[in-house]
Amino acid sequence: MVQIKEFRIIMPMSMEEYEIGLSYTIMKMEQQNTNSKEGVEVLQQVPFEDEKLGKGQFTSKLYHLQSKIPSWMKGFASSSALTVHEDSWCAFPKSRTVIKCPLFSKCSLTIDTVNRPDNGCSENVHNLNSEQLAAREVEIIDIASISRDYWSKMISAPNVDLSAFKSQKTERGPLLKGWMDSCHPVMTTYKLVVMDAPIWGLGERLEDFIIAGERALFLACHRLCFAWIDEWYGMTVDQIREMERQTDMLLKKTLKKPGKAGSKHEGKRKTLKDEIAVVGSCT
C-alpha cells in the first residue's frame, strides 16, 4: 500500500534566508558524514529547466552509508546493493527528489517540497486530489524538539538545545514553547513523502522504516540549519554555488572517487519529466 506523509517544518527565518541556510547545512552535514570508506558522492550538478518546476539545479548523488543500515537489512544484501541513489530537481521554492536503491528496485520514494512564507497553516500546497488527501497523514515537526529513535542515533547530528540557543547575528531564539505561533520572520517547508514498497511480507515494515528515516533526517537537518545561522547568515546564492563546487571536489577526494572529465556540465541527464514518467507523479 502506498503511504503518503506530509511533514510541515516551520522555520524562524525568511524564504530567502532558508534557501541559503538549507544549502549550507546540507553541504556541511555531507562533509561531516564522509570519510575514506563511506559518505556522499556527487555525480552531477547542472542547471535544468522544466515546464512544471521552472528553472533550477539538478543534482545526482550516491550515498555510501552502509554502517547506518540496520542489521536485519544487511543480512540479505551486499554493500553495493544498499547504496542509495538520489536525483533532485530544485527550483526554489519548489523541488522534487527521487530516491532509489538497487536492492529494492520495485520500490519508489519521492519527496515533493513546497516552501511558503507562513507558519504551517496551508492545507493543500501540493494540490492533492480527494483520494490522495484521504490517504495523506500530516505531521508538524517542531525543530526545538529532540528525537531518540533509531534513525536519530544513526544520523549522529550535533546535539544543540534550541530552547537555550540565541543567534548573535540575528538575535533570534531561544525557541521556547509556542514559538511557531509568535516568531517573525517565519516560513514553512511542506514535504510530501510518498513511499511505495510492493514487497510481500516486508512492504509495510519497509515503508514505515524509510518514512521514519526521512522524518529524522528532516528534523536533524532543520535543527542544524537554525543552529548554524551565524555561519551562513549574509551569504549570497553565488557564494553557495561556489561552496557546492568546492564541496563536490572535497567529497570526491575524501571518498577517493576520481572525478570524470566533464561529468558536472556535460552529457545527457534525465529531466524531471522523464523521471515522472517512470515513477509516476504524486501531485
TrEMBL record:
MF (Gene Ontology): phosphatidylinositol transfer activity
Domain of life: Eukaryota
Record InterPro entries: PI_transfer, PI_transfer_N, START-like_dom_sf
SUPFAM superfamilies associated with the record: Bet v1-like (SSF55961)
Chain ranges of the Phosphatidylinositol transfer protein N-terminal domain: 3-247
Membrane-spanning segments: none
CDD domains for this protein: SRPBCC_PITP
Location of the protein in the cell: Nucleus
Cellular component, GO annotation: cell periphery; cytoplasm; nucleus
Stated name of the protein: Phosphatidylinositol transfer protein N-terminal domain-containing protein
Gene source species: Urochloa decumbens
